[in-house]
Amino acid sequence: MRRPVIGIALVALVAVTAPASADNAHHTPTRSEVREAERKADAAADDVDGIQAQIDRANASLEAASIAAQQAAEAYNGAVWRLQQARKAERVATRASRRADRSLAVVKHDYRDAILESFVTGSPDLNEFSALLDADGLSSALDRVATSEIVQREFVEKRSAYESAAGKAEEAEEAAEDATDEAADAKADAGEAKDDAEAAVAAAQSAATTVADEKALLLQKLARLEGISVDLAQQRQAALEQQRQEEIAEQAQQQAAEEQAALEQAQQEAAEEQAQQEQEQEQEEQEDPPADSGDSDDSDTPDDTTTDDPSDEPDTEEPPATPPPAGGAAAAVAFARAQIGEPYVWAADGPDSWDCSGLTMGAWAAAGKSLPHYSVAQYAQSTPISSGSLQPGDLVFWGSSSDPSSIYHVALYAGNNMIIHAPRTGRDVSEESMYYWIPPNFFARP
């Protein structure tokens, strides 16, 4: 939108029509002089609009750098979280491998004893031949054959147990090796993610400095063109940006309200349709009862297909949203509010500095619930809800797409469309409108 440049036009017009002496004090501007004044005014207006466009582009570049930094910082948190999970899996696999090795050692010892016993007692055939030579005769031979068969069965069982234990030990060792490799890969990924986050944060800080310097020069030009002081130009620009942000927030809030109303309407219509179908089905069953398949007296046999007890009717109402733990949500909000004013530092989780998921993790830890230091995992470990179901203590997320894996920012809902969060580098923990920025697209209850 072109700014009004009446003042500039008047200045230009006076400049071209100013009297050179008292003789032409009542000089009437010619048509060409008026056109020239209008041309200069238009040129000045174009400069004003152009400068404003440059300021808008500078703000947009700063916003893009800020989002990139948040995405990189949460990607690092995710890499660290996966590394922790991989190391945990490695410890579990290593312990399982050690247990399998100990079991194998026991079974191996039993198997070795069985082999030695087999060599000492000799083969079943030799035992039978020796028994025939004994004074006990055939009866003793049969006893010896039976004993030999028992020994052989025990030998086979111990051999089978050994082979099974050996196989399990080998599998456990391979699993431990795989877990170790995965942990090493996760560590490497975390290192790369850390480098990326550091680079993105440095780029965002550099962009902030560059944009601040650029806006200062542009505002100086704007002040000269509009004939006002630099301070006034800065105040007007801040007010203009605040007005735009409020308009965006209002539009986002209205859109969210419309979407929630549409969702509730659809749910109500679905419930009414289901209730209507059940009512029609019940009427059909009452009008056309099932045929009697036996000879028993109908008056003595209760009809199990229908009931007049309303408690047996299926529940057609929407189940209420699961409430947060008693006192837990209030404690989480109180903790987060106590951190307001503390600085944002990427990957920080307190006690004096925070990033977005570090703050929500700390808040819910104060409420007695453990959450990971990673916004994507916080959403995955919580119960998704709609924006219309938000209660204080719930989590509000921003993602770059409709896929939860794209989440890169999280805040704690404080009620009345307000959130408490650690916004980004250069901004402290604050409480502000949920729609202060781009609209959130994920909501969940821990």
From TrEMBL:
Gene Ontology molecular function terms on file: cysteine-type peptidase activity
Which spans does this entry mark as compositional bias, Low complexity?
A: 250-278
Under SUPFAM superfamilies, the record lists: Cysteine proteinases
Q: Which residues form the NlpC/P60 domain?
A: 326-446
Give one Pfam family: NLPC_P60
What keywords is this UniProt entry annotated with? Answer: Hydrolase, Protease, Signal, Thiol protease
Its signal peptide is 1-22
Span list, region Disordered: 21-45, 165-192, 250-331
Q: Answer yes or no on keyword Signal.
A: yes
| Annotated Acidic residues bias | 171-183, 279-318
Gene Ontology BP annotations: proteolysis
Give the Basic and acidic residues compositional bias ranges: 24-43
| Listed InterPro entries | NLP_P60_dom, Papain-like_cys_pep_sf, PG_Endopeptidase_C40
Which residues span the membrane?
none
For this protein, the record's PANTHER family field holds: NLP_P60 DOMAIN-CONTAINING PROTEIN-RELATED, PEPTIDOGLYCAN DL-ENDOPEPTIDASE CWLO
Q: Which family does this protein fall into?
A: Belongs to the peptidase C40 family.
The name on file for this protein is NlpC/P60 family protein
- Gene source species: Nocardioides humilatus
